[in-house]
Amino acid sequence: PVRKDLDVRLVYTADIQPYQQVNIFSRVDGYIAKIYVDKGDFVKADQLLVEVDHTDYVHAVNRAKANLEAARANVVSQEATIRNAKLNLDRMRALIKDQYVSQQDLDNAQAAYDVAVAQIESLRAQVHQMEVALQQAETNLTYSYIRAPFAGSISVRNLDAGAFVSGSTGSTSTLSRGILVMQDITTVRVLVDVVEKDVSLVKIGQPAELRADAYPGRVFTGKVTRVVQALNPSTRTMTVEVDIPNPDRALKGGMFARVELLVGVHANALQIPIDAVTRLEADQYVYTVQDGKARKAPVQLGIQNNGMIEIVNGLTGTDPVIVSGKDLVTDGVKVAPTPMDLPAKPASQ
Predict the structure, then answer these.
(1) What does the pLDDT look like over 303-320, one tens digit per residue?
(2) From CA 209, how far away is CA 221, in angstroms rounded?
């Protein structure tokens, strides 16, 4: 037996997921003019991915600019009309003092001035409408150039040049097929379903280790980043998200992985090789060596890790335990033990 700190680990299996994944849709209607990337390509943030035929959108921008210029010209013309109406009104006010004009003439001049002032407000509102229309046309033209929302790679290409795309497609639905599917795996995400009895042990920030069949012997490290504070009523499990840095992109979305969450440490725990334990129905025991004889010792087991298991009760730690050949001895039989190496630390058995 050995005494040393024992990591408390929760071991689960899970699928690896990209840190980010999006379907790339068009926000405007039109035919695809060109696709600049293909499956497997790595792209930078804001890199041009797809170009939708923008002929109609260029015309719409030019038309909106012309309409805006015309609306501004109408305002300038109306301002001149107002100035003329104001001069005429001032003239009538001066002439009526000497009764060179009638009150009706003055009233007509006042009405003409008021109408001209009212009309310019309407024309200015039209200018604002034309400015908004130009902004919308320019936005639609910009949308005809589809760019990468983040740095990542292209995992799926669904359409080719010449295909028609629509901005009214249910692009907010994750079930809709986009032009491309893009993902970021510089960090990968693993969703672990923690069983109810272990829920209280898991905390944000705890370290995690991940192993994948594709890379035997390699250990990827990360940490718990998110904990869903509710259990799934169907499975009685709580979802825990683990983020694993993946700068070389070795881990891929969809890979199967084994995840170990380090949730605590049992200090100075008494440990023996797990092969030394015999389980018979409800009984758990080991054979120790005392005065050259095998002695049966019932034990209470704790957690296990790396081929070692914690003995919570039943052993003092001073007597060697029998590992190899334990099934050949009985309580009180004479034995001649031979020391062996423990998996974690050399020690005599």
Answers:
(1) 887 788 888 888 888 888
(2) 5
